[in-house]
Amino acid sequence: MDKRAIFSTNNNSVAVVIPANGKDIFACAKKAVPTGTPFWVVDVSEIPLDRKKRDAWELVDMPEPDGYGE
Amino acid sequence: MSFYNKSTNFAVKDSLTTGDPNKIVSGVEIDTEFTNIASGFSSVDSTKVDVVGSAVADNIVTLTSSGAIQDSGSAISDLYSTDDLKTDLNASGDAPIYAARAWLHFNGNNGSSILSSGNVDSITDLAVGKYQINLTEAIEDTDYTIIANCSRDIEPIPDPNSGELDRAYQVHVAVIDESTFKLFTGGAQGGSDTDFNFFEYPRITFALFR
Question: Where are chain B's structural domains?
């Protein structure tokens, strides 16, 4: 519940995978993220709460991904 | 465990030569074997033998509290019938029951969070008012029905003169495949604005039927 998976969408925006209660974030991300697309697992506190610029979010200077969509 | 022990080895008699008195199978030997068999059966504890007596068609074999098998004397329909199920679900009449195959209640505000769900693996927050629902178990095809709703989750309901109620709380559904679909939430701003705008709501719910 305290983890999220983030990935970049086709239009360079950022999508956030939110697992249901009790679900493993890595398993959820592999299933929810498009095949071959890298994702990163982050703490929920790292997701900005201010949604005013939500549609302008983008991922920059990201480290090695935690996994890829399957 | 064996309840019968053989007294005579009849097979070895085959290797004896003709004329050897031991080659003869005597009535005494046979009688001894039958006696052994009868004795063996008598030693079996009949309470350990599961006997289903007076069984009739459709009867159910059940286990007793001590683990023995017995005839329940009941038909399958007597144990739990379709009528029992409908009664338990408070469904009267002849109309059938169709259960939801997935459901969800999530807060779309401030980054979204799933509050409760069934058969939902995750949701993907795509943008303001745009969500992808990822089911745990796929539906058999894409001809499923989704009943969705979004609300501000506030009380009392806003003053009708405030313009707040002019904003239509709409949920649009886009089916992608057997295990994923999208929800779009929003509506018109109200007043002269009739365009659809994406908004987030603190209470977004759906139930899926097939």
Answer: 1-44, 48-95, 100-209
